[in-house]
Every structure is written in C-alpha cells, then in structure tokens.
Amino acid sequence: MEHLFITPTGELRDRWEQAFPRGRAAARVADIGEATSGSQGIVWLDIAALAPAERSAEVQAAAAFGWPVVVMAATPGESEAFQLLKQGAVGYCHLKAAPEQLREVALVVEHGGFWMPPELMQRFLALSTRVVPTKAPVSRELNELTSRELMVAEQVARGASNREISQALSIAERTVKAHLSAIFEKLGVRDRVQLALAMNNIPTHTTVN
C-alpha cells in the first residue's frame, strides 16, 4: 500500500515520514500518476494553501485517479468535511495529525471505511439522529455481541471516542479497539460511523470500493 502526499512543497513532513517511512510526495494532483508505481495506495491531499473555492475541484481530481483520498486541513470544519466527503474524499483529518493517528486513518480507509475527527463525527451522528427518526435496533446480529461489546457499540452510537469509551467503561483503549474489531466483523460494518448509524437504525449505503 503506497502513501502519496500532495502538498505545495512537494516534500514529506517529518510526521508523515514517521507514519509511513516509504511514503512519497508530489506538488500537484496532476503528478499523481508519475509519482506512484503501485496498484494500491492512498492519496493524502494537503488543502491548507488552497482557496476554499478550489478545494472541491482538487478532491474530485485526486479521487478520479482511483485511489482513496484523505484530505488534510489546517482548520478542520464540519461543513467542509461533509462537502469534501461528498466530492469523493473518504477521510478528513488535521494537517498536523500525529503519526499514530495517520496510521489509524489509513487502517480505516484501507478497509473501505471513511474517517473524520471524533468531534466532527459526534456532530454528524447528532445531525443524523435528528433528521431520521430512530428506534432501538432489533437484529439477530446484535445477539451475537457479548455484553461488553454491546456496551461499546452503544457508546459509539452516542458518538463517543475511544478515549471516552475507555473512561466510561473503565477499560483500556486497546481493549476498546479490540472490541470494535470484533463488533465490526459480527455486524458486517466497515467503520465506527457505519456502526453508529446501524445502532441508531439509520440505513447506510457503502460507496467506497
């Protein structure tokens, strides 16, 4: 899996190289084809220097290459996140995200999910539950969850982050991650957003290849 960073300088930042030692960089979206050599990868698009009016077009152009696109913004915002996700991005994170978080984003995206910062996800889920009437999901799949897994799933449905779940249930964050992996597999969802929507009985439609 290749990692190509599109940034005005055409050079990798230290945190990007720490996250992906074999990562590459290019200065323009038009250079994606020349800067990559593999058949699978992720395009990380730095939009900090782009005017707001240019960002949607750049995301569309990057997505046209066929690889998942993760947008990196200097000041992430809710409305921009949703707009760029509609234009083809599958991830939206802070430009200065730590290497560990970048690897977490990549893992979600590689498995066909989409990623946004926890605080934006919480607002997204709150909006979804206001727009679509919800009720407690009744599904045989839920019966396959252990009591602890169900507790974790219910926390995700409220928009809680891994750290918040860890504190609420008095378990380690790595245990939360292990529970989530098991939940995803049992319920057939790709990421925590799909899980939250499913728990709130809101239909989801996967468009990511």
Plain-language structure description:
It is a single chain. This protein is an alpha/beta fold. The protein has two domains: 2-116, Rossmann fold, CATH 3.40.50; 122-199, Winged helix-like DNA-binding domain superfamily/Winged helix DNA-binding domain (Arc Repressor Mutant, subunit A, Orthogonal Bundle). Helices cover 47% and strands 11% of the residues. It contains ten helices and five strands; from the N terminus they run βαβαβαβαβαααααα. Strands 2-1-3-4-5 form a five-stranded parallel sheet, sandwiched between helices. Strand 4 (69-73), helix 4 (78-86) and strand 5 (91-94) form a beta-alpha-beta unit. The longest helix is centred in the last third of the chain and has 15 residues, at 173-187. It is elongated and about 50 Å long. It starts with a strand and ends in a 10-residue tail after the last helix. The model is unreliable at 130-138 and 202-209 (pLDDT under 50). InterPro entries: Sig_transdc_resp-reg_C-effctor, Tscrpt_reg_LuxR_C, WalR-like. Residues 138-203 form the HTH luxR-type domain. Keywords: DNA-binding.
